[in-house]
Structure formats: structure tokens, C-alpha cells
Amino acid sequence: MKDYTIICDDQKITFSLTRKKVKNVNLRVKADSTVVVSANKSVPYDFVEELVRDKATWIIKNLARVDEKKLLNMESKYITGEIISFLGDNYKLRVFQTDRREKVVLDGMNIAFFVKYSEAIERKQALLREWYNDQATIEFNKSLERTYPLVERFGIEKPTIKIRTMKTRWGSCSWKRGKITINTELIKKARECIDYVLLHELAHFKFHKHDAAFYGFLSALMPEWQVRRQLLKKETGAND
Ligand SMILES: [Zn+2]
Description:
Layout (H helix, E strand, L loop, with lengths): L1 E7 L2 E9 L5 E5 L5 E5 L5 H10 L1 H18 L9 E4 L2 E9 L5 E5 L2 E6 L5 H31 L8 E5 L6 E4 L4 E5 L7 H13 L8 H10 L3 H9 L7
Parallel strand pairs: 2-4, 6-8, 9-11
Antiparallel strand pairs: 1-2, 3-4, 5-6, 7-8, 10-11
The protein binds zinc ion.
The site of zinc ion has 4 residues, from loops.
């Protein structure tokens, strides 16, 4: 077995090549993020490399999926290097010790934790929850400013937004009370997903049930809503 590293579209791909009695060439991405190629002795290396290049997009996509799975299974200790999702992007967590006020700060592609005791997991967890809540309040209200104008002319009153953590849904609508409840977890998703959830709930002020009229209305306002819903479903199992 021998390791090779090639560059495809600015992405480095390392693969192990094993010579085996296989028909031609087999390629797979393993759960430990390694790319393994088995090839018959008669297949020249150039042919193998060409195949890896052809499959580069598929390989990179699968490597990303493996990484994602690993992250989901990992118990978070809130230490430097961990990944934090925010508005559809992955940020790197960084921990700094401070004797001043404890806080969480967004800094480029990093989310910096300033804490008195860098080992205090529960404290860091609470700080992140607080930060997510603050960001959710800001972002969901911004989303309402973007989506409400789409429904205003249908005589829908501008609702207020309540934020809370929910296990099985992204949002809910109390049309009688003029209130929309949005799952705090939605702050981890891209703005286009947030807008989709907001508009979905706004549409419920006019059509309460998930019937054809509801979906017709939603499609007229946001023709590509299904693409956004697909994006939203990618990593979690919650419903709208
Ligand atoms: Zn609904």
C-alpha cells in the first residue's frame, strides 16, 4: 500500500493505493476519512490518478459527510478547534482566559470564548446558549423584515416573534394571538432557510392547514421554497 497526494481544483486529496486482484479499480471513502483505491497490477498509475481526478467532487463531498458525522457524534467539550454552526457556516471555536467579563465574540471565521476558567464546560455551554439566543433574536427579526413585505398586502398583521428551543419543529404559528414561535436551533442554518421558515409561518396566518391552498400561496411567494427546505433538512430531522 502506498499513499499519494494530488491537487484537484485547489483541494488536496490523499489516497492509499493497494494492488489487488480486483477487476479494474475500486475507490472508496472510509469512515476514518481515508480514501482507499484498490487496483489490479495491470492498471498503470496514471490511469488510477485520472480516475481519482474524475471522482474528485464525489470524494470531497463524501469526506465532508464523514467529518460532519464525526462532529455530530462528538461530545462537545467547548475546546479550541471544535466546530460551531452559525447561519449555515462552520466556525472554529477558540477559548481565551480572561479576568474581565465573560463573553462570546464572533471574529472572522472564529467564535471566541472569553472565560475565567477555560475548563468549565457547563459555563461555556451556557455562554454559547446565551449568545445563540441573542443572535437568534436579531436574525429572526431581520428575517421578518425581509419576509413580511411579501404577505403584507394580503391583510396579514405583522406578528411578534418568540424564540425557544423545540425538539421536533422549526417554527409554529398562533394566528389568533398574532405570534410566531421559532426554534432557537434555526440560528445554525443559512439565512435562506430562516427566511423559508418565517415565510412558511407567515403563510399560516392566511391558510392554517397544510393543504393545497397553503402550498399554492407559499409557492407564489417563494417559488424555490422546496430547495430551501431540502437545505434545512440536510443535517437534522426537525420538521417545519
Ligand atoms: Zn406549517
